[in-house]
Amino acid sequence: MISYTASDYSDVNNWMIIPEITKDADAFYLYPTSFIDASDGASDICEIGCESMRALARQRYDAQASVFEESCNVFAPYYQQSNIAHVGGMPEDELLAFQHGPQRSDVFAALDYYFENLNRGRPYFLAGHSQGSIMIRIVLEEYMRDHPEYYSRMIAAYAIGFPITRNSLMDNPHIRFAQREEDTGVVVSWNTEGPANRGHRSVVVSNGMLCINPLNWRIDDVLAPINENLGSWMPDSEGMLRSTPGLADARIDPDRGVLICTTYENYTPMAEYFGPASLHNGDYGLYFENLRRNIAVRKRSFLAKGFLST
Q1: Residue 53 within any structural domain of the chain
Q2: How do residues 93-147 score in pLDDT, each as one tens digit?
């Protein structure tokens, strides 16, 4: 594997957030793709100091990672990212291979610095979305395989918006997929779309994909109706995030391995990447309050097993 020079995470400027410690557990969050440049000669990789990427990453934090703040101290590094205009058409295996560049080097370096200097032995969640979840998958498969001392303190990994597949778990038997709302030491994942996306290509849909329903925390195809949704955190017509009574139902399509929503149709743009009825941009927001509660449930379950932070 080619060696890449990682960004310096002892430099606080390379962190979006290093929080004040007020909770007994942490969350380590990797934001989704926040850079797209389809112009001629555009770089395949966005440098860590790119202010347009950083600005959008901060918006992604508010829309997604803020769900952890009630239960956790949330840490969020900036990291070098792939330009989606370059990687959007790649099949899953090529995309995962491409992410083993400066992106992987940065994320692993940020984790090294976090565990060695910031974590202080507390239990923690991993969390990501889209490209951030590609990196969470690589972290689970590689970094945590090599660091079981850190893995033992992981409450759960929310790798939302990118495939976690049966084959990836077969190849990495140390990783388990969540089966219930209180499981710990597991990976949690779903990819949301409308019924009309069936039969269309999406870069976040893969063969053998696993899914859990964020309303009822089941892995079968039982419908969770809209009255089970505790509330959504979605942008209004002016782009401002608003808390809204449940907008979305949820049912797993076991054949496609996705989460189907039939009650919300503000579909994600870039149909060439995600299909015409994707709800990729709503993976967190549509199920925000249920996710917030689940974070607290998994944390309590982990601590009840007798874990003591050092």
Answers
A1: yes
A2: 888 898 889 999 999 999 999 999 999 999 999 999 999 999 999 999 999 999 9
Domain span including residue 142: 12-304
For the four alpha carbons of 231, 123, 29 and 255, in that order, the dihedral sign comes to negative
7: in domain: no
Q: CA 126 to CA 12: how far, in whole Å?
A: 20
- Contact call for residues 10 and 113 (beta carbons, < 8 A): yes
Q: How many domains does the chain have?
A: 1
In this structure, what are the phi and psi dihedrals at residue 196, rounded to the nearest 5 degrees?
-75, -5
Closest CA to 73 of 26, 28, 136, 133: 26
pTM strictly above 0.90? yes
Q: Which of 195, 273, 218 has the alpha carbon at shortest distance from 33?
A: 273
Q: Which two tokens stand for residue 64?
A: 């997604």
Task: Name, in order, each residue with C-beta under 8 angstroms of 307's C-beta and a sequence gap of 6 or more.
Answer: 123, 153
Query: With contact defined as beta carbons under 8 Å apart, do 215 and 224 qualify?
Result: yes
With vertex at residue 158, the alpha carbon angle to CA 192 and CA 38, rounded to the nearest 5 degrees, is 60
Dihedral angle of Cα 245, 259, 56, 187, to the nearest 10 degrees: 110
Give all strands of the β-sheet with 186-188 in edge-to-edge order. Answer: 15-17, 73-77, 26-30, 124-129, 154-160, 186-188
Counted residue by residue, the chain has a size of 310
Sorting pLDDT into bands at 50, 70 and 90, what band is 310? very low
Q: Is 57 in a helix, a strand, or coil?
A: helix
Tokens 């009574």 — which residue?
245
pLDDT digits (tens, 9 = 90+) for 272-291: 999 999 999 999 999 999 99
What DSSP string runs through 220-286?
Answer: S---B-GGG---EEEE-TTS-EEEES----BEEETTTTEEE-SS-----S-HHHH-TTB-GGGTTGG
Q: Does residue 2 sit within a domain?
A: no
Structural domain includes residue 232: yes
- When the pLDDT of each residue in the chain is averaged and rounded to a whole number, the result is 94
